[in-house]
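Lecture 7 notes. Example A: sequence first, then its C-alpha cells.
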Amino acid sequence: MRELQVIHAAEAAEVCPPMEVTADARPIEGRSADEDLAAFAKAIGHPARVQILRLLARHNACFRDLADALPLAPSTVSQHVKILKEAGLVRGDVEGPRACYCIDPRNFRRLKILTAAL
C-alpha cells in the first residue's frame, strides 16, 4: 500500500468542478431522512468504502491512485467506488483511460448531519 498522490489544483478542478453551495432544506427527521441515512449507511457499510471516503475527503484522486493506496484488487476497488457513486457520496469523471473521483460535498455533508442527528 502506498501513499495517495495529490492531484494538482487545476487537474482537481477538471475532475470535480465546485458545486454551487446552497442551504440544505431537506429534513433531518422523518421517513425521507431515515431513508437517506439508511442508504448512506449501506454504502459505507464496508471498511474499504470508509477508507475510500477518507482518502477522497483529503484529496481528489484518480482510480489508479486509489487502487494503489488500498490493499485490494483494482476490480474490488472499482466495485466499492461504484457503490459510493450510486449512493451519491462520490462524484467521478471518466476521460479515456483515466477515471478520477472526489467527494460529493452536498451528500457528504448530508451524511454528517443525519448521523449527528441520531
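Example B, a different protein, same format:
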Amino acid sequence: MPIVAPPRVVIDTNVLFEGLTKQGGAAGLIIDVWRAGLLHVSVSTALAYEYADALSRKLSAARWQRLQPVLGALLAGGVRPDFLFLATAFSRSRR
C-alpha cells in the first residue's frame, strides 16, 4: 500500500482561535488533526505574526501565556524554523 502524504492546508486565524479556545466543534477537530500530524499546515511569516497577534489581543494575559507553547509547538511541527523564531520574537515583544 502506498504511503499518502498528509494534505497541505492553510489554517485561517479564526479557525485557529476557535480551535484553541473552545472545546469540540469543527475548528477544534482541525486543530486536533494538526497536532496529531495528520495535516501539513503551510504558514507564512505574515500568518505566524497574525496568529500571535490575534491570540495575544483576544485572550487574557494569563490565557495567552498558557497557549503560547501550544502555538509554538503547532508552528514547529509544520513550518520552517525561522517562522517559529519570528512568532516567538513577536510574542516576547508584546509582553
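Note on Example B: Residues 37 and 47 are 19 Å apart (CA to CA). The longest helix spans residues 61-78.
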